Each structure stands twice: as C-alpha cells, then as structure tokens.
User: Fold these one by one.
Assistant:
Number 1:
Amino acid sequence: MQLISGYSKLSKIQKLEWLAQQASEQPTAFVDELTSYWHRDQAVQKRFDEFSENTLTNFYMPYGVAPNVLINGELYAVPMVIEESSVVAAASQAAKFWSERGGFKAKVLSTSKIGQVHFIWPGEYAKLYVHFDDLRERMLDNTALVTKNMRARGGGITSLDLVDMTHIEPGYYQIRGTFETVDSMGANFINTCLEEFARTLKEWAARQPDFSEAERQPMVIMSILSNYTPQCLVRAWVECPVADLGHFDDMPPETFAWKFQKAITIARHDVYRATTHNKGIFNGIDAVILATGNDFRAVEACGHAYASRDGQYRSLTQVSLEDGIFKFWIDLPMALGTVGGLTQLHPLVKRSFEILGHPNAQQLMMIAASLGLAQNFGAVRSLITSGIQKGHMKMHLLNILNHFEATPAETERAVEHFKHHVVSFSAVRELLEGWRVTASKPA
Ligand code: MEV
C-alpha cells in the first residue's frame, strides 16, 4: 500500500480503482464486486455516499424483526440490524415468552442531557461565582435564536451552572449545561449551544472591570456534550409469579428462578461475567439502535459508564424474588432521537419507524430497553438451562454451510446429521467433501 495525498478529492470510481490496484491481485474483479453493491437508484446511492466520507460502496448487514414484543400493552415487531446469529431468535423467543405473561413494562424516568465547556481561569471560584448570574443570562440571550425552535417543542436549556474543578487541575472550571432535546438526540443542538457559551464567556470576561488582565482571558479547552446521560434514564421490567415461569425442559420454575438469580448476582459482582452479560444486553439494544439510525457508540459508551457508576462494573440488569414473584429489570440511560440525524434520511430507518408505528424518543427508549432485557433473559435462560452452544451452533452450522455453498438438499441433510453430531468447521467440510466425492463417482 502506498501513501496518497488528495484521495478524498478523487471521484468514487477513481478511489475504487486506486484501492483495487493497491490491494487486490484481481483489480477488475475487486471493482466489479464492490460496485455490485451499489444501489440501483442513483439518488439513493448518492444519499448513502453522503452519510460518510471516501465512500466506495454499501456494506450489507442483515435486517430482521423480533415480533410479539408486548410493551405497556402495545404489541410491536421490532426491527433489528445485527450480523450475529441467534440474537434475533433469542429476542423473539423471550418476547413471545413474556407476551404470555403480561409483557414488558417500561417507563422513562428522566430525559435530560449534559454538555460542558471546560476552561482554565486563573482566579478564585468565588470571584467568578458572584458574576455567574450575569454570565448565565448572557449565555441564554446569545443562544436564544439557536434554542427558539427547541423551546417551541418543549425543550431547550434547562440549567447552566459553574462547576469548580480546581481539585483536579489548578484553574480548571466547567460551565455545565443541562438540555432537554425532546425527540431529537440533540448532539448538534447541544454542541452549538456550548460553542456559543464558550464564545460568550471569552467576550464577557474581557469586559469585566474588576478582573485582572489574566482573568479577562479565560482559556477554553473544549466545548462538547457528554455522552454520559444518567439523567436520561429508562426502566424496563417483566414480572410474574415464579410458578408461572413454567418448566424449562426438565427444570422446575423454582430451580430456574433460583439459578437465574445466582447468574445475575454473579454478573453484579464479577467484572469478567458482567462484561459478557452486558454485551448480550447490547446485542439487543444495538440492533434496535442501528435499525432506527441512532448512535450505537454513544448508547454503548453511556451504558458501560452507567454500569460502573458506583466504581465497580456491574450487570445492567437486576432480578428480585420476593413473595413468590420473579421480577427482572433494567435501568439504562440512553440518548435517542426519532427526528433529525439519519432518521429522515436513511430509507430503511424510515421503514423501521413505520414498523414501530412512529414512536417518539421516549417510546423508542422503552422499546430499546425492553429488547435489551429480552435479549438478556434469553441469554441467561439458555446459559442456566441447555447452555448457549446448542442454539448458537445450529445457526453457526447454517453459516458454515453457506460458506461451502451447500445446496438446499445438502443443507437439509447436514442439519439432520448435526442433530446428533458436534458442529465444527472441519466436521462440516469433511461431511460435505465426503458426500460430494460420492456423488461425483460414476455409478
Ligand atoms: C453472545 O453474543 C452473548 C452472550 O455471551 C451473552 C451472555 O453470556 O449473557 C450469550
């Protein structure tokens, strides 16, 4: 691979051809393959190209739904975009299971988001603090135009505080804003406000008569929203009498509930297990976040920070067994949007919202949290009963068969065979090779 300058200025096909020459021994086939994934409608393709930079083609991911997701009495089929096998199946199975036991309940506990201007100022906190009401007023005035539409929709800047951070670094202060962004994720809105606060701070400080020369020049380090949104919190839960859990193969409901509780306790205390446990939760959540055009990196980062909020990384789900009632829940901060960003641009995201009945941001938070809970219930159920490999390997088998381009007849035969044999890549290869050699021998 060679260094190149001006790559971004090349046309799409020039970018592709350059890369093909650099990376592939068969440049023509390389270009043909990548262009074969272009959308047939040029306008749609142009839109995809413009989501990002140096776009060459589209990367396909499976898009499916988990049906029978009953949340607060309303039934949803939830769109999920995920490449991992068994995730949609597990979510669907858990959703069906709970739909027969009252479904998921969910509520949004709070919806505010935070943004910070980090700055260095060489004076005493008290001196800045006495002037802060004046500064706050100017910041609100100077952002009035930016916040106008948001305020009309019921959102805006809900508080602005000066935070003393000098215990961390001499002269380090923050302006901490809280924001309500209604149905938008609000990143652009918050960041625009913050940059205006920073500009106002500098302009205002320069004109303070009782400030020293140095105090008139605060040094803004950065202005950026926080993806940690513990006050943008949703809770989802399921509950039923232990006896109503029913039997899991041979396992009676009491044993199941007992083992389930132990599994959650382990994930609350052991970071190795907690990480895998929460990864399973995000299997469900990320899939919904992707299908609805939201920012899964932000949601994950926030979820993992929240999982460590008391200093120990813990399971995001909890369970209780009181008075014979099995209750299983998740509390999760999530900043989601149903307007703005990709939500009106990506054709499949628009379809996702259609499938979900056009939820608002709070409803989407409840749907995503319920899917996370469903996923976790499905995973823990498998882990404490049959183990996960049984289900996983069934799906994995299909992937391996696809890899070897098995015919429908071979697939059917192989699925039957592996009901009684251990699935592995080499076992599938050997089986197919055996059949194919036999089939090619003259009779
Ligand atoms: C696999 O993607 C997710 C699980 O490992 C989650 C878990 O262990 O809880 C099955």
Number 2:
Amino acid sequence: MQSIGGFGYIDGLMCCNGIPLTEVIASVPHERGFTPLYVYNERAILDNCAALNSAFPQAKKRFAVKACMNLEILRLIRDQGFGFDVVSHGELGRAKLAGARPEEIVYAGAAKTDYEVSEAVGAGVTIVVERPEELPIIDVAAISQGLETTALLRLRPNVDAHTHRHLTTGTAFSKFGMPEAAVREILENRVSASGYRFGGIHFHIGSQIDSPSCTAQAIGVALPIIDEFNLKLLDIGGGFPVCYTEDGSAPCVDEFSREIYNAIGDRDIQLLIEPGRSVVADTAVMVTTVMSVEYGTDEEGKPWRIVTCDAGMGDNPRPMLYDAYHQIWPLVAGDPESTPTYIAGPYCESTDFIGRGLLNLPLLKRGDRLVMMHCGAYVRAMASGYNGNLISPEVIVLSDGTIKLIAMRQSFGHSIALELVA
Ligand code: LLP
C-alpha cells in the first residue's frame, strides 16, 4: 500500500506522519472502547491547502464546510487563507467560530428559510441565490436591517459532470440553481430591488467531477452572462476529484486550474472556488475494531468471509449512499487471505457493509483493527445517530507529532438531552 495523506506502513504498522496509529488510538478517552475513531493528519491538510493556493493564486478559496465541519479543522483551513462556503444556520455558526470575516463567507443552500436569509443578511455574508423566491425575502431582510446584501445567482448550466448520479448537480433536472433563462430574467429586472446587489454568477456542477473540461464547459455558459451584465465575480463551486482506489487516478487541481484560467481568459473578474473533498478527503482515516469473523459459501459455492466491525453505516454512510469504495487496510500488515472479504458494521440493516469483496486483508480475529482510508470528507460529517449511535471522537496528529483530541465521543447524555423536555 502506498502512503495516502501521510498514512502508511512503517515496519508493518500503520502510521500517521510517522506516528504509529497504535499510539494515536491509545491516546483517546476509552470508557466505552477506543473505536470507531477518526484520525486526521494536519500535515496533509496543510499540503492540500498549499496545492490549491498554488494552483489558484488569485482566486478566493471558500472551503465547503459540509465536507468536514470539525471546528479545529476549520480553524486550520482558515489559517491557510481560506474562507467558507456554508449552507445552514449550523454551518454559518461554525464558520464564524472558526474566525472567518463576513466577506469571507458565501451562503448557499437549496431551501433557505426566512430565518436563515435574515441571519445571513444580518451577518453580512454573500448569499448564493438558488431560486427567484429568495429575492424578495433577501430584499425585505436587508432593507429592514438597513443593509445591502451581495447576492450571487446560482446558474444550472446544463452540464454533466460525469460523476455518480447522486453527486451531479448541474444538469437540466436538478434541484440546484436556476436555468440560464431564469438567471438572465432576474438580471434584466434587477432595478426593482434595493436590498441587494448582484455580485456575480455561481455554479457547482457536482462533486468528483470527471474532467476539467466539464468545469470549462460550465464556465462557457456563465461567461456570456457575466460579460453581458458587466458582473465582476465568478464562483465555480467545488468538485475537484480525489482518487479513492489503489490503482486509479484523478486529474489534479493544477489540471483544473489550467483549464479554468484558459476558459476565463484575460477577463478582469474575481474567481471564487469552493473546494471540500480535495482539501480533506485523504487527510483522515477511520479506525474500527473487528468483532467477529465468519467464513461461508454463497448459493453458487463461492467462498466469502464476513468480518463484522464496530463501524458501519452510521459512521460512514458513503458506501451505502453512493456505492462508494474506500480502501480498508489492517492496522498491522499481514499476508492477504484469498477469500473475498466483506466488512460489515454493527447496524441492524442488511446493507450495512463498508467494504465488499476485498482481497487485501490478512487473517483476522476479534480485537484486530482495520483502517479505512479517505475518511476526511463527507464521512464524520454525515455520521448519524441511527441505532442510538453515539458519534465517534476525532483526533488530529499535528505536524510536530503531538496527538490532539478535537472532538469527544458523544455521550448518552448528549444524545438524550434534547428529549428531556418535561
Ligand atoms: N459548493 C457547493 C455549492 C456544493 O454543493 C459542494 C458539495 C461543494 C462546493 C464542495 O464540493 P467538493 O469539492 O467537496 O466536491 N456527500 C457526497 C458529496 C456531496 C457534495 C455536496 N456538495 C459524498 O460523500 O461524496
């Protein structure tokens, strides 16, 4: 196995930036067990931020908080010169706590409530308008608070990002943004409003975008609008892909930046990007512990091994939602077994497998630990309380080797508190 985000084997033991994960695991409070556990590598986050800063030197970077909302991680990313892309009251609160100034926050969201619009206006952040219905709400909120809001219009450019069908957002049928005609109509009638001004055009065509040419194609739809209405800002969202497999590849951020700057040409406009996955996906792993191992054969006589662990769909729902593949490696390296291995979780659902048909895992027994790669983006952020799951802790290995707890394990008290209303 090659190192992923600074996670790799040293003398047969999985390490993070040279620190054995056994040490990291031993450092967490463990009244109810050590795992599941999310482990981040600070060095890898800094490297990914540096790569984006160098690929997009003049662009404003707004980290998509939805990918990873841990406050410490947000602060770290903020310190690298990033602002934030938020989509809710909860994410706005985190962005503010992480130290972002209002002008460094863009607020999107497919169904903003009146409360959220009013809060966003009051906070002075830039609002990404996804539907015409939002405009009068923004107008009233801004006028009543004596403010003027900068609004970006989210364009649905009718461009296919050639990604998983659940991750594409810019095609003709999509709940996000507005078709070109609707965006133009709003811009043509803009005179009526005094509570906001249009700062520019926004789009986000999807996540895990297959090729930079898809983004360039969407830019090609946005630019005529920018030119015609003399707008000064283009926000192209996120979507830079990450390779999750052992042997695949994904275009890097430099390839994207080349095509993007080419498509924009010498126009004098401000570029904004909203990367999420490319900043954090490879920078964390999830450690889980084996609870049982069973061998069997299916109806056709094909052998299988089911390894049931303490992490599953409540800890990483991506395999169930998107058929997502995450590499899973043993904490202690060993010769692979030839039986196709299925990694099951503890949840009471037959779909609860976080790995299927794996051929790289050694002989395993209860108590052994497994390490799931690429768990920095959309993993802990999408964890759920299903089956009474108490969300697992997060730790970070700092660049100087210090191990720091950055989120406690949720307690039963935390989980039940909101229901103790009587
Ligand atoms: N900007 C907007 C408006 C977005 O909707 C998103 C992601 C991003 C930026 C960041 O995109 P990224 O750079 O991370 O691709 N839960 C799914 C991913 C959903 C992405 C939603 N929007 C997953 O686990 O793959």
